[in-house]
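Hallway conversation turned thread

IA: we were arguing at lunch whether anyone had actually written out Methyltransferase family protein end to end. Turns out nobody had. So, for the record, here is the sequence (195 residues) and right after it the structure tokens. Reply here if something looks off.
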Amino acid sequence: MSQEMLAWRVALIVILLMGWMIAFGIALRLRGVNPNAVAERNTNWMQRCLIAGAGVLDLYFVFRAPFPVLDDLVATRESPAPWAALGLLIFSAVIILASQAGMGRSWRVGVPGAENHVDALVVGGLNRFSRNPVYLGVMLFLIGGLLAAPGPLTAVAVIVSFVGLTIIIRQEEHYLHGRFGAQYDAYARRVRRWI
């Protein structure tokens, strides 16, 4: 597969994934759930930075196909394994989609405030294998992006996202312990944080 074809396919995957996430968020809003805890005033800077960084990276992946000069601007090299990159991106997108769908009304972007509480602790679906399957999917997606477009931008995205998501996961764990108490503690003993 050519590098140009890989760039177009990555752009399509990102567009479809972002379209799903927007549609899922709208569907939750129509059901009376505000899934966007990041927009709440009590959201911390780490959540906002990760969302902004994801937006920049998504735009890069979408626009690098029609504007290959972007790769020169951020010192991106050719993918050493285009098919592996594409496979990992598709696999991780499926994990993200299945995880969000499995969380249903409990899915949130960011740590909820008191006015946006999660009603139920989700322990089924992919949450049987990971307490954070969406974040696991995001990290795998970023690694696939690094493999598809190796360079400083994607390498920094992987590192910063891992550190940031680890911080957010700890905040969410604190929230879930406070919200669900012993039920969450028992779940946390059974299921690992990542996998």
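OS: looked through it. The mean pLDDT is 90.
IA: good, adding that to the notes. The chain has one domain: 3-190.
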